[in-house]
Automatic annotation (TrEMBL):
<comment type="similarity">
    <text>Belongs to the small heat shock protein (HSP20) family.</text>
</comment>
<feature type="domain" description="SHSP">
    <location>
        <begin position="44"/>
        <end position="158"/>
    </location>
</feature>
<dbReference type="InterPro" id="IPR002068">
    <property type="entry name" value="A-crystallin/Hsp20_dom"/>
</dbReference>
<dbReference type="InterPro" id="IPR031107">
    <property type="entry name" value="Small_HSP"/>
</dbReference>
<keyword id="KW-0346">Stress response</keyword>
<protein>
    <recommendedName>
        <fullName>SHSP domain-containing protein</fullName>
    </recommendedName>
</protein>
<dbReference type="InterPro" id="IPR008978">
    <property type="entry name" value="HSP20-like_chaperone"/>
</dbReference>
<dbReference type="Pfam" id="PF00011">
    <property type="entry name" value="HSP20"/>
</dbReference>
């Protein structure tokens, strides 16, 4: 697993590669122009693009948990782009097929995944920590302490 800082996010509002219209006759995956086109993604990427990720905020940090079963930490990247966009990506390779193998069912997805999250201003991106245990990637982004208002007692005269 590597933490890489990058800049120049191509489209900061396009946070996922998954195309819900891929394969439909009116969607971006076809030559039809009935619906405005979205950036294209390969079907291999779209198949695994829906990596499930939870994002919770605690008083101390933003915590992301991603289900990435079967992946080693070396196959997952955690990056910060443009100073405040957290990007989690990786790839699950297809199982090697032997010539004499006969498959009865293939349900597990393979391919690349990529998820992006715009972090709030209070995120300390230089202190991000990531760990992986039992197929769950946990990314912790510490938060800056909220500044407490400086309250002064004022004597009321009158």
């Amino acid at each position: 697993m590597s933490l890489i800082r990058r800049s120049n996010v191509f489209d900061p509002f396009s946070l996922d590669l998954w195309d819900p219209f891929e394969g439909f006759p009116f969607g971006s995956g076809s030559s039809s122009r009935l619906v405005p086109s979205f950036p294209r993604t390969s079907s291999e990427t779209a198949a695994f693009a829906g990596a499930r990720i939870d994002w919770k905020e605690t008083p101390e940090a933003h915590v992301f948990k991603a289900d990435v079963p079967g992946l080693r930490k070396e196959e997952v990247k955690v990056e910060v782009e443009d100073g405040n966009v957290l990007q989690i990506s990786g790839e699950r390779s297809k199982e090697h097929e032997e010539k004499n193998d006969r498959w009865h069912r293939v349900e597990r997805s393979s391919g690349k995944f990529l998820r992006r999250f715009r972090l709030p201003e209070n995120a300390k991106t230089e202190q991000i920590k990531a760990s992986m245990e039992n197929g769950v990637l946990t990314v912790t982004v510490p938060k800056e302490e909220a500044k407490k208002a400086d309250i002064k007692n004022v004597q009321i005269t009158g």
